[in-house]
């Protein structure tokens, strides 16, 4: 299950990082384990007001030298992205994400702003300007204004796979499970200064792009590549990086990339998602090896389940794909946990994921926590203040 890619950490040289990644991959392959990594996108907001702030270049100027290789631009100047190095241990992933969040948050504060882990901008404000990159300008010219507002911020989880053919079969098996994982990430109920009625308004905005949606049922890796080529030829995407299916094969790493969720308020929220996702992928790899066929769930039912995830989050209902009936989303998440429990235990994640599941059940999703603050008389500004504290911890 090897994966090798280099992401420089503070105080570690490129040669050292390559050696660390190679050793990690060798250990994973020897023990038949899966490495994982997380990408998170954040919003930059004003130091005082809850509005988005176009400070990304100023933040980059304030980053320590050792952190600039793990921080990236996003589509808008009010966004910024980080990528954790690959890990085997959830404890190491937690440390990495906290270090990245605190480091970028400190740079944002030095630049006159704040870092906020939220799906999209809660407060009113003008549409943001693009980062000055040729690809982003070509996207705007070709697709128009599909992303009004300050931007959309998500969480992407990479889990290593043995080969692309297995990866494609894993994508088929993932399809029924992703709506409930999406529900657990819901963290964008506010937009334009008001409650949208959705737990994840980012999800609804994101669906405007032509390739966003559930991964289709795939016959083979060749079928996957043919679809990618056909979508590029159609003009629905400019390159493979614009394949915005909720799960895909990474174009850069030997991983499946799960990418349907909002960015979550705390590092622990992201680690819970990563742990459950790795447990699920590892379980599904075993299903593929055993010759178990993936259920060919009807695309309209998947669309309905993802809509329900965006609307209700984890606090409402979602669709039980086995019965095609609505059930409490929290119970469906528990069902997923029970399904992947053996792989959680085998990867050493069971205790951490159990604790974080309990915390999520007690506190609710990011959307629920934001709404609870408003229900206690808080303002949108109070919500953004809380998000900034939760992001940096």
Automatic annotation (TrEMBL):
InterPro entries: GCL_type2/YbdK_subfam (IPR050141), GCS2 (IPR006336), Gln_synth/guanido_kin_cat_dom (IPR014746), YbdK (IPR011793). One of its GO terms (molecular function) is ligase activity. It is an enzyme of class 6 (ligase). The keyword Ligase applies. Keywords: ATP-binding, Ligase, Nucleotide-binding. Its EC number is 6.3.2.2. It comes from the Bacteria. It catalyses: L-cysteine + L-glutamate + ATP = gamma-L-glutamyl-L-cysteine + ADP + phosphate + H(+). SUPFAM superfamilies: Glutamine synthetase/guanido kinase (SSF55931). ATP-dependent carboxylate-amine ligase which exhibits weak glutamate--cysteine ligase activity. Belongs to the glutamate--cysteine ligase type 2 family. YbdK subfamily. HAMAP family: Glu_cys_ligase_2. This is Putative glutamate--cysteine ligase 2. It comes from Actinoplanes couchii.
